[in-house]
Amino acid sequence: MAFELAVIADDLTGGMMIASLLEREGVTCPVITETSQLEHIDPSTEAVVFANKFRLIPAPQAQETVRKAAEAFLTAGAKRLYYKYCATFDSTDKGNIGPCGETLMEVTGAERMIFSPSWPEWEVTVYQGHMFLGPNLLSNTQKIHDPVTPMTDSNLVNVLQRQTKVKVGLLSHTALQGGLSASKASIEEQAADGKQFFIVDAADDDDVMQCAKLVIDWPCISGGDAMPGFLAKVWRAKKEKEEKPLRYHLPPASGYEVILGGSCAAATLRQLEYFEKQHPLFRVDLLEASRNPKMVKSILEWAKPRMNEGPIAIATSGTVEQVAQVQAVLGTEGAALLADTVTGEVAKGLYELGARRFVVAGGETSGQVFNALGIKKVEVSSFDSFGGGYCHAEEPSPMTLLLKAGAIAGEDLFIRGLERMRSDEQPEQNDEGVEAAGTKIEL
Questions:
Q1: What pairing do the DSSP bridges indicate for beta strands 113-116 and 195-200?
Q2: Selection from 424, 418, 319, 388 nearest residue 29 by Cα
């Protein structure tokens, strides 16, 4: 076994996104949540994603997660490791991007590492070290209101430098456009000044491709969603590979249908409103939940009779104002922990009642649901209009899930996700409705 690429993702939806983008490139890429699952991976597999919820935990714990995953992948023969974090570089001055990068360099013995979060396809770009979402600097977008990781500084060199003792440099758009020789010269010049971490400019796909060519043989690389696909283009260009058809349908799963909302992104709030016009929605009051130890039981009692009639939704999501009110009482970490705990317990209870089709909104929420349901390995569909979160788990029993990153837009996305799950039972009759493009992210 010798994987071309081993991805360590700091949340589940991010890991799913990369797997689906690699599937779009013709690379089979399962997602695992425990490295023990590596022994069950087909030896011919080119890429594997290990996704775990460590974006917001204390940096030392995140580093230990990364260390163990990296060591397991290296033991399995991985040629290169990729550390995946949010495309908008969501983090705090305490980490975890910088500390986890330090750990990867230590484990692999690398002398330097790039940080390339840009995703030009979705208008997430970096220029002169500053991140832009569409035409706007990161600090001029809704990201400044993130309840846990408010991104108030668009200068990613500064953001990363505050998290690490390693000196941070910049691989500029100008250097990348100068070709490999100019890019290498820029890195070497800055390395002579002691810099080992490098934020990468990327104004378009050509910048990402130039960077992929530069780092293809580096032992560890980091970035957002786009880079792995370009790395695959580079390594696959060096070898003959049979064309693999894209797949949007996965093995079917039969059971009740449930929406679980944890994201507080504006796109998710609109999707919940759209769903509520047609189906029952239970909005969890977290302040009440903090006082009521029987809240989960009440939610399940509400859900049980309604699941027989069609899909239902349970959400801890809230507006900026609602989140602020809850955090004022429970604290930022306390509110997040309670929301995750309630959602996880509800997911487990719904599964025991027969739910087998889940749409989950939010990266942290998705990780909690996977943990609660005991899901350790999934097949992933090719990247499509759902933003890469469509997957199927065979164990502990067949389940189909759509994990939606908060900012993935489209007010009817929940409804369309459930329709896709139903169509998996007769895919040959339902291919016409499959959407391979048109994914929207709310900037």
A1: parallel
A2: 388
Q: Tell me if the bond preceding 293 is cis, omega within 30° of 0.
A: no
**pLDDT at site 10:** 94
Q: What is the pTM of this model?
A: 0.84
Tally Cβ neighbours within 10 Å of residue 185: 12
3-state secondary structure of 57: coil
Q: For the chain, what percent of residues have pLDDT higher than 70?
A: 95
The answer to whether the CB of 437 falls within 8 A of the CB of 384 is yes
Q: What is the DSSP letter of 220?
A: E
Check whether 432 has a pLDDT greater than 50.
Answer: no
| Spatial distance between the Cα atoms of 340 and 332, rounded to a whole number of angstroms | 13
Tokens of 58: 């204390």
Q: Tell me the pLDDT of the chain averaged across its residues.
A: 92
76 is written with which tokens? 């399995």
pLDDT surpasses 80 at 391: yes
> How far apart are the C-alpha atoms of 154 and 337, rounded to whole Å?
28
Q: Reading across the β-sheet that carries 130-133, which strands appear in turn?
A: 124-127, 130-133, 136-137
* Residue 2 contacts residue 79 (beta carbons within 8 Å): yes
SS3 of 125-169: EEECCEEEECCEEHHHCHHHHCCCCCCCCCEHHHHHHCCCCCEEE
Nearest by Cα to 24 from 286, 360, 366, 386 = 386
Mean pLDDT of 19-29: 93
Helices 332-352 and 320-330: angle between axes, nearest 10 degrees: 100
78, 173, 212, 231, 352 from 217: Cα distances, Å: 12, 21, 9, 10, 47
